[in-house]
Design brief:
Blueprint: E1 10-13, E2 19-27, E3 33-40, H1 43-58, H2 69-81, H3 87-105, H4 115-128, H5 141-160, H6 187-196, H7 203-212, H8 216-220, E4 227-228, E5 233-236, E6 239-244, E7 251-256, E8 265-268, H9 273-288, H10 310-324, H11 332-344, H12 349-356, H13 361-367, H14 369-381
Antiparallel strand pairs: 1-2, 2-3, 4-5, 5-8, 6-7
Helix pairs in contact: 2-3, 6-10, 7-9, 7-11, 12-13
């Protein structure tokens, strides 16, 4: 009698005389074993087929069940990330999964996905991705790295659960890092933008963005106790953000502390912005008389004192851009414009770094290379007269070139 119990699988002779070998090919999304079978007319042949099938399982070449990557990502988020992530991060992950990963490869069977599939997907993000902030093609390298890390984490958990043999993200090459193109308003565009602000309710906010380089969330989370008119400074210590509650699915607006300590900073105010903010404060007091006023003490808020939606800011910005007849840009372009004006004025990069809240000066210098190069050309021009080189006006007056050896030595 043949040994029907082997460590890798079970072999038996069927009633019709053929042979069957059953083996475990992996686990489905619910953790249940996936059983498969191979058949042959004799025992020797079925054992050979079993060895080949088990080798394919070991190499991760057998699809375990019918679950797709999209289905697994939903399970992974619900069972493994719901309590592990901050609500804002959870919302970001969900958005990436629903809008980027699922449309591209979410339909593929989880266990059938190989490293080349992930590599093609990653490559397409840099080539074809649509950036949310500008609509330009191609996601940034940092954003692609975030997506890659998410997939690696999800596939790692699937491997731990026995649903796949190995993580297909291992071995994926990230695209070559490219320097992002930043949008900076020229001096003429800046003037046109400022003129177009007249009559807009959020004019003070856009002016403050242009005069301080504050981020959109920092502007929307700014409170009056952080505005020091006497010392002409603004303290940045919080930011407004919006996320979808994982439990209720409702949008939540909240004020929270910055992620990094470098974002905590004091920014000096230029004189021109002070009367603008004072007038804005006076206008806001009219709304405070409303009994439904929300006492958040926000500098920029709705007519009820609540946090302004980011989409509302973007809508106003697009209207202003259209009035000024400028090419479309995001709020971040005002931050870049402020930094560029600072660098053009000769403000040391270290000071600009601290005002922007960058983690180190290298980031500031790398971001605004176009300015530092122009500055270098202006500075080098100052030493032109320090090096006195007289070139003969008549080329015939030149002495013959004898090379590096005088008196013909070495010829």
């Amino acid at each position: 009698m043949p040994d029907n119990r082997i460590t890798e699988g079970n072999i038996r002779q069927r009633p019709n005389g053929s042979w069957e070998a059953r083996y475990t090919a992996g686990y489905d999304l619910n953790g249940r074993q996936i059983q498969k079978s191979v058949y042959a007319p004799d025992e020797r042949s079925v054992r050979r087929k079993l060895r080949m099938a088990l080798a394919e399982v070991e190499m991760g070449q057998v699809a375990c069940g019918t679950g797709t990557l999209g289905e697994w990502l939903d399970t992974w988020m619900k069972d493994y990330k719901f309590r592990a992530l901050e609500p804002i991060t959870y919302t970001q992950y969900t958005r990436i999964i629903d809008t980027i990963i699922k449309p591209a490869i979410g339909h593929k069977k989880l266990a059938s996905i190989k490293t080349p599939d992930i590599q093609k997907f990653i490559n397409s993000l840099q080539r074809d991705g649509i950036r949310q902030d500008s609509g330009a093609g191609g996601y940034s390298t940092a954003y692609i790295q975030k997506i890659r890390n998410m997939l690696h984490d999800a596939f790692d958990q699937a491997a731990t659960n026995g649903m796949i043999i190995r993580n297909p993200v291992n071995g994926v090459e990230m695209p070559k890092q490219t320097k992002p193109q930043i949008r900076v308003l020229s001096h003429d565009e800046q003037e046109r933008f400022i003129k177009a602000l007249d009559g807009f309710e959020l004019r003070p906010m856009f002016m403050l963005a242009l005069c301080t380089g504050m981020r959109r969330g920092e502007l929307l989370g700014l409170t009056w106790d952080c505005v020091d008119f006497r010392n002409k400074t603004i303290t940045v210590r919080q930011s407004a953000t919006r996320y979808k509650d994982p439990v209720t699915g409702q949008a939540v607006h909240t004020i929270k502390e910055p992620k990094t300590w470098t974002s905590y900073r004091k920014i000096p105010m230029v004189d021109n912005i002070i009367p603008i903010l004072r007038n804005h404060m006076q206008s806001q007091r009219v709304h405070m008389m409303d009994p439904n006023w929300n006492p958040n003490d926000l500098v920029f808020c709705s007519s009820k004192g609540t946090i302004i939606e980011a989409n509302t800011v973007n809508r106003y910005l697009n209207q202003i851009i259209k009035r000024a007849e400028l090419e479309k840009f995001s709020m971040h372009a005002l931050r870049h414009t402020f930094a560029t004006r600072m660098m053009e004025a000769g403000v040391p990069a270290k000071v600009v770094q601290e005002m922007l809240g960058h983690k180190d000066v290298a980031l500031t210098l790398n971001t605004y290379t176009h300015v530092t190069l122009d500055t270098a050309h202006r500075e080098i021009a100052k030493i032109n007269n320090l090096i006195d080189v007289q070139e003969p006006q008549n080329p015939g007056d030149r002495q013959p070139d004898r090379g590096i050896f005088p008196h013909g030595f070495g010829r």
